[in-house]
Amino acid sequence: MTNTTTATAHLTDSRNQDAFNTMKKCVTLFGVVSAIVLATVTAMAFTGHETTSFMWIRGAILLAVAPVIHRMAVHASRGSIRAFDRVRTLSTITPIAIIGVDLIPGLCPAWYAVMQGLSALALIGVAFITRSAALSAAFAEKTS
């Protein structure tokens, strides 16, 4: 068996496919929470409550990023090492950025920071999954 065939065999292993399915569910959860955040901002604006451009822009960007990450996760589950590396990187950097920005005093209301933090938790799950020994080994063999 060649290295590519071996890596493909490891990627189609049921445990790895379960990991990819969980990863895709976590990304979907990230998207759902991001949509809820943006819907809440919209509802607040329509009911006369104060909203900021930061809340609108960030909510829209995070909602837009969710399908992109999901698509990369799908490609990774099919064996794309580039997609796997991108999901691994985004799922590590994005939660740090979300939480770090939320800690800036006065930038956003507490409820907004909490909801964004919840969406970050879903991506933290993806970061852990992409660093599992089995997935890392399967993609390491693919590059050999």
UniProtKB/TrEMBL annotation:
It comes from Rugosimonospora acidiphila. This is Uncharacterized protein. The chain crosses the membrane at residues 26-47, 53-69, 90-112, 118-140. Keywords: Membrane, Transmembrane, Transmembrane helix.
